[in-house]
Amino acid sequence: MLIHKLSLTFFLSLVLLACSPAQESSSGAAQQADKTTQTQPGVENYAAETFFATTTLFGSSLSHDNSEVLVTSDADGIFNVYSYPIGGGQPAQLTRSTTDAYAGLSWFPNDKRFLYSADQGGNELNHIYVRELDGNVQDLTPGESLKASFLGWHENEQSFYVMTNERDPASFDIYQYQVDDYSRTMIFQNDAGWADMLLAPNGQWLALAKVNSNKDTDLYLRDLSDANAEPLLVTDDAAAVNNRIFSFTPDSKHLVYGTNAHGEFVQAWRYDIAAATHQEEYAADWDVMFVYFSEQGSYQVVGVNDDASTELTILTTETGEPIDMPDYPAGDLRGVNFSNDESVVAFYVNSDTSPSNLYTWRIGEEQLVQVTDALSPKIDKAALVSSQVVRFESFDGLEIPNILYRPHQASTVNKVPAVIFIHGGPGGQTRKGYSPTIQHLVNHGYAILGINNRGSSGYGKTFYHLDDRRHGEDDLQDVVYAKKYLQSLPWVDGEKIAVMGGSYGGYLTMAALAFTDEFDAGINIFGVTNWVRTLESIPPWWASFRQSLYDELGDPAEHAERLRRISPLFHADQVQAPVLIVQGANDPRVLQVESDEMVAAIRDNGVPVEYVLFDDEGHGFRIKQNRIETQEAYLAFLNQHLQEQNSGTAGD
Fold first, then answer.
1. How does DSSP classify residue 27?
2. What does DSSP say about strands 579-584 and 609-614: parallel, antiparallel, or unpaired?
3. Which of 298, 297, 293, 332 lies closest to 312 in space, CA to CA?
4. Which has the minimum average pLDDT: 41-45, 423-427, 539-543?
């Protein structure tokens, strides 16, 4: 049973969801949430509620009898687990949480039990649960203040693996659970700060990642059949190289891994365990993001980050040629999973103008089955906007890639205001794909430029490291030059440009307001404002990445002066433009006190500031009604400060 796990490699990664009901608001802007921007005839404006009536779906584990797909959906307002018939039809809701977000992980290999994960109010302390055939639920990782992750199944289908930090908050140990009674045995005690781990299908080999710096990660193999065996270094690079675990081959004889040892971009390489030899597996002109296999190894799935889009290819391993699939709608393939017998494949298709929809295909048949239709039925797809990749030169001549959305309303005679949208990270990437947050603002006449400033992933290792220890300096100048680029477009109102972002993007938003006078307004979504405190309060489960974070940003013990210099909190008296700040009370990465203090400091400066605080959210927002109300706050804030002359009411 295939479970594909992507490693967590970036600190403060942005969960690109909007927020939740306002617990506090300092102005009446929220009352203007339905005010439209200036439009041309034929452009219908939709309310935020309509955009978020679209369903968000992920997960594609196929049941043992090839009849159902395990899917996570927010159809009822918060993420729960559902079962969709592979031939289409109404889903069955399998969990009914009303407070915490649940994420389906996997069916059991031989029955309809399933595993799922949930934290508590967004605190990221995930537990692993099993739902029994009779509907009863058992927490397989009980306890306080622990975090657990599912690591997959043994090939004999009689056991599965879970890692938890219950023994040591800074280290994850691996336990093997039996499928019959859920008894468990610790099979690996993590005493060396391993950052990532993956087990071979036969359970003998454990791949381990050791982060030495933000430019250097080594991979090791440990033979679990020998209690005295030491981890064996398998990527012995002379220079600093970032390596990452991708997958084992189904026969457990090879480890497939990603490496940037051979150029600017990540390639996939294969390590033969018995022969101790390496060979190239897959390379492209962009980063290879992942490589994994179907259960019996007949198919290989390869993902490439092609200029902010995912180019996913399914290869037949016998020939190395792409599988001959029926036509599917334009967009990126995501979440590909095969059934155990490899006769059925489930996957999603996502594009700028279409949210992820689930498809199934019985291999060899002439047609696919579209299982879901996730877009709100009230939205005319023609009202949505496709993005284009654009580039501009920054202050030093460096070419900066971006994703640009041009509203239907925009023209040289009807110039529109613009928002520079900054991704999270550091090291994230603004990518093409459906976003209700972006589409709602574009629908109301705001141009959106999703900037991939220096330091973003996906554009080579040199580009990625250009902002090391330069945060709030060179990358901030990229944001300023993004404004200059927007001002060069004849359909943009160059006098009405705001900046917006979440997590690290929230930090750069506040930096843009504190250290420049370029922008007319800013929206900071759970952004860092005090780097010293943030780096001193890293969650314990990030311990294995601590050195990498310090290499990227600075050690608060050694570089406190610089970190204070680039922290907006200590320069709040320089903020002159209106600000909307959004924060989750349970955020373990950017603590609430960060936003509390920033709001107080801006208010003391006499500058308009709105504060939207959520007592039931963390670093990213899970509850649909929360996202709706905060999306309305975004629009109201922008309308108030960029479009005060507008009137009218948005409707369906």
1. S
2. parallel
3. 332
4. 41-45
